[in-house]
Design a protein that fits this description.
single chain, 204 residues, Seminal Fluid Protein  PDC-109 (Domain B), Jelly Rolls
């Protein structure tokens, strides 16, 4: 791991008062704290609250069942932090039938994914957030990013209006939290029959 990445990890550890730091021994019997596990290794078993480095991004395990799934598996992991500028965090979605999207015909906002965002003081401000999405029927659907911790909307696009998967920018970013926060990707069908959400990229 680069010296820059190591220093960054230590900063996050101090910020969150994590009891496990890079270079310390790992005790898999300890639960309920954040555990730094170094670079992801498919030969290792990972537990809830483990943090790994994968493709220069950090992921935290959210699955209570031990396993070794790749950190891009959204059932078991979620984005935790980025270790450098000019990179991105990438999320893909699958429904219960393993199709490469999630969808809804609900007119109320539903949760698509949670993101544990370390805060702009640690990782900087994202420059844009983009999604691939589509609708069925006429009209337009809505996607937004909500900071649940501070009760703010960070960005929103209320004009998801193509029946083929298309890249949409979620617009101007505002109210970006400076400290660690719970973010949610939320979506609804708006005036369309249905909305499908395939993936999301947060660009730094």
């Amino acid at each position: 791991m680069s010296e820059q990445a190591s220093e960054y990890i230590l900063n996050v550890v101090e910020l969150l008062n994590v009891t496990k730091q890079p270079g310390t021994s790992y005790n898999e019997n300890i639960r309920g704290i954040l555990n730094w596990r170094d670079v992801y290794d498919s030969n290792k078993t990972y537990y809830i609250n483990d943090i790994v480095l994968f493709n220069e991004l950090q992921y935290i395990r959210i699955n209570e069942t031990p396993g070794n799934e790749t950190p891009t598996n959204i059932i078991s992991w979620t984005f935790f932090a980025t270790t450098k500028k000019n990179t991105s965090a990438y999320f893909t979605f699958r429904d219960n039938n393993n199709r490469p999207y999630i969808d809804t015909n609900n007119s109320n906002y539903l949760l698509g994914q949670k993101i544990l965002y370390p805060g702009s003081e640690s990782v900087g401000n994202p420059s844009s957030i983009q999604v691939i999405a589509s609708i069925t029927g006429n009209g337009s659907a809505n996607i937004r990013i909500v900071d649940v911790t501070n009760a703010n909307i960070i960005c929103e696009n209320a004009n998801i209006n193509t029946t083929e998967p298309t890249i949409f920018n979620l617009g101007v970013l505002s109210n970006i939290p400076t400290s660690i926060s719970d973010l949610e990707i939320q979506y609804n069908r708006g005036t369309a029959n249905l909305i499908r959400l395939y993936c999301l990229t947060m660009i730094f």
